[in-house]
Amino acid sequence: MYAPDFAYYRADSVAEIGRLLRKHPGAKLLAGGHSLIPLLKLRLAAPPALIDIGRIGELKGISVADGRLRIGALTTHAQIAASSEVAAHAPALAAAAGVIGDPAVRNRGTIGGNVAHADPASDLPTVLLALGASFAVATDDGERAIPAGGFFQDMMTTALGEHDIVTAVDVPTAPEGQGQAYEKFSHPASRYAVIGAAAAVGLTGGKVGRVVVTLGGLVPAAIRAGSVEQALSGQAPSADAIADAAAAVSNDLGPDLIGDIYASAEYRRAMAPVCVKRALTAALKRASSVAEAPAARSPWWKPSWL
Amino acid sequence: MAQVSITVNGKQRTGDVEPRLLLVHFLREQLDLTGTHVGCDTSQCGACTVLVDGRSAKSCTIFAVQADGSEVTTIEGLADGDNLHPLQDGFWEEHGLQCGYCTPGMILSAVTLLEDNPSPSEEQIREGLDGNFCRCTGYQHIVNAVQNAAAGRA
Fold this sequence. Notes:
The complex is a heterodimer of chains A (about 300) and B (about 150).
Chain A: E1 7-10, H1 14-23, E2 28-30, H2 36-41, E3 49-52, E4 62-65, E5 68-72, H3 77-82, H4 84-89, H5 91-97, H6 103-108, H7 111-117, H8 124-130, E6 134-139, E7 142-147, H9 148-151, E8 152-154, E9 157-158, E10 165-172, E11 179-186, E12 193-204, E13 207-216, E14 223-224, H10 226-232, H11 239-247, H12 265-286
Parallel strand pairs in A: 1-3, 2-3
Antiparallel strand pairs in A: 4-5, 5-10, 6-7, 6-10, 8-9, 11-12, 12-13, 13-14
Helix pairs in contact in A: 10-11, 11-12
Chain B: E1 2-8, E2 11-17, H1 23-30, E3 49-52, E4 55-58, E5 71-73, H2 86-93, H3 103-116, H4 122-128, H5 140-153
Parallel strand pairs in B: 1-5
Antiparallel strand pairs in B: 1-2, 3-4, 3-5
Helix pairs in contact in B: 2-5
């Protein structure tokens, strides 16, 4: 398959990206290309120009300062999954980055491209929403920060303007004692998330304190599962309490569930509580003072041969 | 047209390409390196896997212009003269292929796998080759081949 013809430009700095975007209306940014190139090959997009930003060093790398992880937009999923800093301060993000696509995809795909593309079946939006991340964006007028909660608006639709450039992703470092988890029900061929559930949970005096649960894969854009959070908050984290809270996810899903030939909307609706329960169980297990053992994984979830 | 200069299997190769030309087509059609295969053409099957700057990558999802200035290794560049790469030996010894279509991509993915983890468990091998489909072997002999290579390197 061939992409439609396009004019090709290469930017060497963020400032130059901005200049090129203003000069070439409708141009798209090419980072790792692992979201954009498949779209072009399928002729679902035909931008007149691509601006290759893949070589800009200032957009690469991971650092920790002032209670936040800063991940440059061109940092690859493989680099995030292998980072000891991400593992220490945002373990659910490390886990999610490590289950995107497959190893070769993770070697090329970037966090900035992933979030700007905003595929509903992507893993990172779900986790970044759960962790309260925000996106550093270069604009025509300077810079602004967009919280993940306002960034992912609809299927492949974000708050980014025509000339906006995601330059970094900022993730608050996990508070002491918080447990995080990302559970993915993966499509066996595409490895996109049929359902993805993220949880970040703290325990206070043996009771669930602050809890954030998010879902992706089955909804047009990642959502918070407020009913689940409300049901679990203040409870002792027993298996029954987790299961009851997970069941409340049906109130959060809304009418626009995604279904396809592999997994119908009804099936995904039925499986959502299972994924939420697993994410909560794993997160609570990791939270500092939890005594409950996690439920055993049922065999369909990940066969031993995968 | 854009000019690219890519070091392929240790040799600098240049060419005038349309920006939309995929790396796999540059390798196969302009350089006649047909060991890199096109399977699904949708980033899923891994038949087109090569090394770009030492890491496995799906050459059906990279424009040749993106690889300008990079080092690319294909299956043709793995052996040292008549001496096969340990992974090629492993696939030979353990019958890690039947039709052979997936084999170049399997081997190049396994190169990155063994670089990251020289002594992988069976499960780690299967995870490391998650992005490479084989429709013949049922994978067991491929796993054995990678284990053979890992043992040979140790």
